[in-house]
Amino acid sequence: MKIKIFSIIFLFLLSTELLAQSGTGSLKGNIVSFQDEPISGASIQFQNTDIRTKTDLDGNFILKAIPAGTYILIVSNVGYTASKQNLMINPGKTAILHLQLSKSKQELKEVVINRIKNPYQVQNSSSSTRMDVPLLSTPQSVQIISSQAIKDRQAFTLNEIAGTFTGMKANNGNGSFNMRGFTAYSPTDASFLLYNGIRGNLFLWSQQPLLYNVESVELLRGPSGALFSEGAPGGVVNFITKKPLAQNRYGIELSLGSWNFRRASLDLTGPLSGNKKLLYRAIIGYDKSKSFRDGQNKENIFIAPSLTYLFSDKTELNLEINYAYQKTVQQYDNGTFIRTRPDGTFDFNYYPDHLTIQSPTDYGKTHNTSATLTFNHRFNDRLKMTAVQRVVNNALDYTDHIPVGKIKNDSISRGYQDWETNRFSLQTTAYLTYETKTGPLKHQLTGGADYNRYGWTKNDYQYKAASRISIFNPDYSNDPPAASVAAEESDDNKRITNLAGIYLQDQISFGRQLKALLSLRYDSYDAKETPLSSRDNKQGDELQASGLIPRLGFVYLPAENMSIYGTYLKSFNPQTSNNVLSGGPFPTRKATQYEIGYKGDFFNRQLSTNVSLYQINYANILAPAPTEENSHRQAAIDGTRSRGVEFTAMGTIRNFNVIMGYAYNEHIILSTSAFGKKGDRFNNAPKHMANLWLKYNVNTGLIKGLGIAGGLRYVSDQVGLISNQNFLFPEYTVLDAAVNYRKGPYNLQFNAYNLTNKHYFTGSRSSTVTGGLGDPFNYRIGLSYQIK
């Protein structure tokens, strides 16, 4: 039924386009530089309309079905002076344009002046290939949620925007996400989250990543080890942060919402010097909220200053600093209780939603700091260099109560965790991009090197038994356990991992229609975990691992607005544990993906579509393999297989903004072990997910500036625990809506989430006792003021 709904919507949009064909003309042309070199990615826009496109790698473009009339055409690109000229479009005729752009001395200013207002569609991304090429020419499934889409959803964390991506969901209220059937949640890895294409997650796994300084969010589906050395098999998320601008702009946002939610942010940017060479940006944010769940009080402070210095039109240096402080009663939500019936089935509605295993005595304090220095230099139109140094430090102090065993007579035993840790990441990245020709072939070469030193200098962890509580009438008077209670488990160690890698990539163009992408990376890991006191009873961990990571892709463009692609991707990551007491060292975890797909831009390239089919094989997962001599022994198993199909459509068509998607995924275990039986479904991996967000903007008349939006998120049933395939979270559909009114620099907005107050579960952690609970009906009211 839900697939039919999406088909009807898509056919409606298509029929609207067909009805608009009468009385229209076309425009095609070629844009070159002052040296007669083709300019790829140049923006072609009809002023005060949504008619726009970008040039391909040969500098060519075409716009079809343009309503007849006289327009002002703007052509712009970074590093060149924008061109503005009158243009007439005649019915049934094709206008021809050949234009040469001259150099610009104010590169960033041109981008600001000619940016498209309020777009949902982003046609270019440099993150997937580290080259600024159209997504049509990228042999990988990439989806980008723009700044305007984030604002329309009033999404303030990655968790709140996750369901807008096709095939992605948040598993719970912390940093755990599912992409293509795989859970991205890595407490001891470098994380699946990138910042401007660079490793070094600002936030710990126990937090929801904040979006105060984020311009757009990119999802690169599948393994991405060839460029980023990131081994998350389902995909990586890349935050594009807000940069200093050459024009003064001031903005303030205020929000109020359910459960005493309060939020305020300030965004200031502009030049600091008269010659506009020194630019700044300052972002400050604060939010505080409670929850419908007991004890989930949270407070965030976020500060992000940045500076850009333009040495010339070819060279710039950017420094960005982020500081995020979080104070909570409970660091993250361990989930609400689930009752097991006598027959082994589960009652997901038995216990009230507000009850929690955690204690009012629990707390969390987190200090996250990062600094990123980026140097860009363009030697000429063909050769560019980028060098990045990123430093991240995380300090966490928290206590937590967790479930132990099963619920009996509406009571449960608990454990107590006390954890202090200091974690760091030092990332150095440098790469060159070069465009050249060998005979009829065009090459876009990228070569670089990475060095990442990450880990922790302190990992002080203790686990103790805590008091048993009645679920309906909990008594927390004995929380936390006394200091005299002996710890049953204790860690006190440090861990340092050194990762060095080099890579080379070539995107080859065989004429306009056929392109190939060839990449090869070599990574070397060297890690050591060292006890810091006698409390750590492990012998320590050491690992050395290295390997080649290939990437092969092709793109065929049968027309300028559509492409067919195929890709072969690999990645690998060392195990999080190689302790000899557990049977280590273990082989590295490896992911291999095969994907074919189709991309097309329609409605004058305002609507982008993507259909992809994929299979991911993930090998060497660790599973318990105890023996009489060693109850802690583990073994690497064959792994899992995830395969599926995805469809995405997003963009702006006349007065409508739309994001829609459907994903089918089957993720199963390939062999029988203590991990699970062959053919068992993977946990937190629903087979079907669908999403829709549709907004109508009133652009004329008395109510000009009014926007009305609505959407849905559908998730089919999902296994909560691999070892118990009967533990199934029910399917759910959540409806959301929004309305906003923009008048000059002001925007007033109201969002309502979960309109039907649906009771639903998002996923589980490691037992059948609790599960992540979705938010009931809630709302937000936002007011923003911006001067440009």
From TrEMBL:
Residues 320-755 form the TonB-dependent receptor-like beta-barrel domain. GO terms for cellular component: cell outer membrane. Residues 135-236 form the TonB-dependent receptor plug domain. It is found in: Cell outer membrane. The keyword Transmembrane applies. Belongs to the TonB-dependent receptor family. This is Iron complex outermembrane recepter protein.
